[in-house]
Amino acid sequence: MSAALAKGQNAPLSTDTVVLSAQLTAPADLSALLVTDRGKVRSDADFVFFNQPTGPGVRLQPGPAGQAAAVAVTLSQVPADIDQIRAVITLDNPSSNFGQFAPPTAVVADGSGNRLYEYRIDGLNSESIVIALELYRRQGSWKVRAVGQGYAGGFAALVTDHGVSVDDAPPPPAPPTPPSRPAPPTPPPAAAYPPPAAQPYQPPPAAAPPAPTGEVSLTKGRPVSLTKGQRVTLRKEGGVALTQIWMGLGWDPVKSPRGGFFGSRTPSIDLDASAVMFAGPNIADVVYYGQLTAKDGSIRHRGDNLTGEGDGDDEVILVDLTRVPPQVSAIIFIVTSYRGHTFEQVSNAFCRLVDNTSDAELARYTLQGGMPFTAMVMAKVFRVGGDWKLQAIGEGIQAKHPGEAVPQLGRFASA
Question: Which residues form the TerD domain (predicted)?
Answer without folding.
Answer: 1-162, 224-399
